[in-house]
Design a protein that fits this description.
By secondary structure, the protein is of the alpha+beta class. It is built from 12 helices and 7 strands. The strands form 2 sheets. The protein has a 4-stranded antiparallel sheet, with no helix packed on it. It is globular, with a radius of gyration of 20 Å.
Length: about 260
């Protein structure tokens, strides 16, 4: 992270998106980290996980120390790491809140050790370098997941339903905004879906659906020239007023005000 800071001459980066996964591991830091327009205090002994497509911006008050690890879908494929492995982790949330993981001292030191080894290998001349980095990456992700994992009872069932629910939201959020629709696709009751989603995330199924719509709206407002009416239509709202009311209820300001402040 210190090398990135020096390359930017200490200037803050602009909000941006990547088409790869990002892990930010802070040893020492002070500032602010914005992920999908939510702000989190940036400090030491934190680990952030940013999914492809998420908007993020790091604002440093001083030089940060730590690591930024980026990897693509192709890198996972080349190292025989299935995408379902990433989806089953309780780490990468592509449209809900993305607070940092804050491990205890022992877990932090263990994860730090493997990241330093990964950094050393990355800059070394050696055979099977990418495979070694891939193995260490998978180990780091497993260790991070264990820090925030659910109790083991029925965890596979819970993870499977929650993963499928998120996949379905990504497929249908522009046209279907109701929990019942997703419960029917999963062949479970809305109450059971809510129970599983809350167990996994602390939020209701409805909140996840709304969050996906709002994140899409914010990204379009920030990165496109579409009008509020066009964005509302794109997101399945029949009337512009309905979209504006929904956005203001969830965000606290109107789409137009958000555009001015962005």
């Amino acid at each position: 992270m210190e090398e990135i800071y020096e390359k930017r001459n200490g200037k803050k980066d602009d909000p941006h998106r990547h088409d790869f996964f990002t892990l930010v591991f802070t040893e020492k830091a002070k500032g602010e980290h914005k992920v999908d327009f939510r702000s989190y205090p940036l400090s030491g002994q934190q680990i952030y996980f940013i999914s492809p497509g998420q908007v993020h911006q790091i604002i440093e008050e001083e030089k940060s120390f730590g690591f930024a690890v980026v990897f693509s879908y192709d890198f996972l494929l080349l190292n025989n790491i299935p995408l379902t492995f990433i989806e089953d982790l309780n780490l990468f949330n592509d449209f809900s809140e993305t607070p940092p993981l804050e491990p205890n001292e022992s877990d932090f030191i263990t994860i730090q050790k493997y990241l330093r080894e990964m950094y050393t290998i990355f800059h070394a001349e050696m055979s099977y370098k990418q495979e070694a980095i891939g193995a260490l990456l998978k180990l780091v992700l497993i260790l991070c997941n264990n820090v925030c994992s659910l109790p083991q009872d029925d965890i596979n069932t819970v993870n499977t339903i929650f993963r499928k629910f998120k996949q379905l939201i990504n497929q249908h959020y522009k046209t279907n905004h109701h929990t019942n629709f997703y419960a029917e696709l999963l062949h479970i009751s809305p109450d059971h879906l809510n129970k599983v989603v809350k167990q996994n995330s602390g939020k209701s199924a409805k909140e996840h659906i709304q969050s996906r719509i709002i994140i899409a709206a914010k990204r379009m407002i920030y990165f496109s020239a579409l009008s509020n009416k066009e964005i509302g239509h794109e997101l399945g709202f029949s009337e512009p007023a309905n979209f504006s009311a929904f956005f203001k209820k969830c965000v606290g300001v109107s789409p137009s005000q958000f555009r001015k402040n962005a």
